[in-house]
Amino acid sequence: MKFTPAKPPLTGETLDTLTERLRERGEPAFRAKQILDWVYKKRARSWDDMTNLSKPLRAWLDETFELMPVSLVLGKQSTDVTDKLLLGLGDRSLIETVIIRAPQDGVGIEHSRKTICISTQVGCAMACAFCASGLAGFKRDLNAGEIVAQLLQVCYREDARTVRAREELASFDNIVVMGMGEPLANYDALMRALTILNAEWGLGFGARRITISTSGLVPKILQLADEKMGFRLAISLHGATDEVREKIMPVNKAYPLSKLIPAISAFSEKHGRMVTLEFILIEDVNDSIDQAGELRDIARDLHAHVNLIPYNTVEGLPWKRPSVRRQEDFADVLRAARVPVTLRREKGHDIDAACGQLRLKTEKDRELASA
Ligand SMILES: C[S@@+](CC[C@H](N)C(=O)[O-])C[C@H]1O[C@@H](n2cnc3c(N)ncnc32)[C@H](O)[C@@H]1O
Ligand code: SF4
């Protein structure tokens, strides 16, 4: 379903497109940069905050653009280091954005490293059997302005909380495109949003600190390899043979490992960077020592880093995480071959961190309330 907002979001405009809109209105070329400075550098929350613009121009901007296309519905802080923002869109759809803090000794929570996890779609059409985002199916793509606005909402929240945030333009260290949705299925909006986040007139956020995670859309991985901006790539593998992968990821039928692995290889050759293979460990599905051996061989050939993620249980789904012992045995097969591997300590379990769960719960509550 396509959503056409009554007014396009300002956060979806590039310097060029905004300059053109303003030029049509007879404004000088520098005006666009002035407005974008208000949005990204001075964090203006209303048109009236933009005090160096004339009143008629502010009125025109208000008629023409939505300044902020997403609103904070719920901000949940877990007892560990993960905050989750539930955001509402113009059509009342809900998306999730997560702030993951990695405390470092001696610097306190304020200066901990921060990774922001953003969404690219409402729901997901890929229908992976283990994932909460795909449970209610696909609703729609986010537009570029909605993707960018998630990061601005994080800035607003952090500016109010920490000195570091007020001092820095973007006080986070990494962006991971690992929230709800398949990012490469919404390719054009994602690229436009990342261009805005990266631009000096936007948030000035380095492309090499942005990781895009995909379930494995081969033609789009090849297209991404040709982009000038050098993003990092993570692949949701979750099965090290077609037989296992196909059971839990329908995308494997269209793009089996024989197509996916050469595409990953082409990407890392072009960018000269290590790709990450994400592998959720699900009990009795993909956690055997045989799978670990197959994964080791794939990772070694690709010179890839492996991220092992103990499965986060999802209400309504039968899957479980393996015991810690079994997780360690699996990781040991990779470690023994000197494959770089991280066995992730999951964060935010107590606030429904498995992507899409907070949204599903809130939508259920809404249905109950309206019934
Ligand atoms: C939600 S997806 C979004 C990005 C993209 N669609 C993808 O699949 O890579 C991000 C990561 O979360 C993982 N994931 C989904 N459900 C999970 C769960 N219940 N527990 C742990 N990880 C999960 C996915 O497999 C994927 O590696
Ligand atoms: S894991 Fe990624 S691709 Fe699969 S359903 Fe979830 S969000 Fe979509």
UniProtKB/TrEMBL annotation:
Gene3D superfamilies: 1.10.150.530, Aldolase class I. Its cofactor is [4Fe-4S] cluster. It is an enzyme of class 2 (transferase). Its main location: cytoplasm. It catalyses: adenosine(37) in tRNA + 2 reduced [2Fe-2S]-[ferredoxin] + 2 S-adenosyl-L-methionine = 2-methyladenosine(37) in tRNA + 5'-deoxyadenosine + L-methionine + 2 oxidized [2Fe-2S]-[ferredoxin] + S-adenosyl-L-homocysteine; adenosine(2503) in 23S rRNA + 2 reduced [2Fe-2S]-[ferredoxin] + 2 S-adenosyl-L-methionine = 2-methyladenosine(2503) in 23S rRNA + 5'-deoxyadenosine + L-methionine + 2 oxidized [2Fe-2S]-[ferredoxin] + S-adenosyl-L-homocysteine. Binds 1 [4Fe-4S] cluster. The cluster is coordinated with 3 cysteines and an exchangeable S-adenosyl-L-methionine. GO terms for biological process: rRNA base methylation; tRNA methylation. It is found in: Cytoplasm. The active site is at residues 96, 355. Its EC number is 2.1.1.192. Residues 110-350 form the Radical SAM core domain. Keywords: 4Fe-4S, Cytoplasm, Disulfide bond, Iron, Iron-sulfur, Metal-binding, Methyltransferase, rRNA processing, S-adenosyl-L-methionine, Transferase, tRNA processing. Specifically methylates position 2 of adenine 2503 in 23S rRNA and position 2 of adenine 37 in tRNAs. Belongs to the radical SAM superfamily. RlmN family. This is Probable dual-specificity RNA methyltransferase RlmN. It comes from Nibricoccus aquaticus.
